[in-house]
């Protein structure tokens, strides 16, 4: 996924009201930008962080800049724009990066499904022409090299798991695809310490046949590219933090 043009560097002053952040540009100007992330953004929004912004071509936008990337003290890049995960997932599926999801034909984004007509992020047909429903989740919470989802209690994510289990019960394939938007993360698991109900449901969903995969990415001020599959563990695990 290429950015429309190279991102603009800045320094984060603060994030507030969930969707707003103040940043300082290289010339010293302080502006307010759109923050496209409803989560806790733990470890992603520390004052003083280097950040990168995209500029909207829409002249009517109140805040023309959008916060896209942040850099940790250890030098890891994080994509804080959760909307990018679906785009990168689509590219990974088309490029056949995740071997367990090869091949998928008739790839379609935002397809309605289920009894309540909710939307699945990606839909396709596998080699056996089974309907395959893929729910994409953006992972940015890191503790050392361990990544966790979600970073806050998410009843929506819990409901998605139940819907995917319904698809398996109907004879289809159902997948949770964690798109890892943090270059320091090497393994992903459900955040038992943040949302125990979600973590428990992940274990139950996996037992019911829901598949869990994770995708790492390369991040830069010009592009976000799918890289490779990494390990998902839905059991409670602890990994030592990097020194």
From TrEMBL:
<dbReference type="InterPro" id="IPR040452">
    <property type="entry name" value="SfsA_C"/>
</dbReference>
<feature type="domain" description="SfsA N-terminal OB">
    <location>
        <begin position="13"/>
        <end position="80"/>
    </location>
</feature>
<dbReference type="Pfam" id="PF03749">
    <property type="entry name" value="SfsA"/>
</dbReference>
<feature type="domain" description="Sugar fermentation stimulation protein C-terminal">
    <location>
        <begin position="83"/>
        <end position="221"/>
    </location>
</feature>
<comment type="similarity">
    <text>Belongs to the SfsA family.</text>
</comment>
<dbReference type="InterPro" id="IPR005224">
    <property type="entry name" value="SfsA"/>
</dbReference>
<dbReference type="GO" id="GO:0003677">
    <property type="term" value="F:DNA binding"/>
</dbReference>
<dbReference type="Pfam" id="PF17746">
    <property type="entry name" value="SfsA_N"/>
</dbReference>
<dbReference type="InterPro" id="IPR041465">
    <property type="entry name" value="SfsA_N"/>
</dbReference>
<protein>
    <recommendedName>
        <fullName>Sugar fermentation stimulation protein homolog</fullName>
    </recommendedName>
</protein>
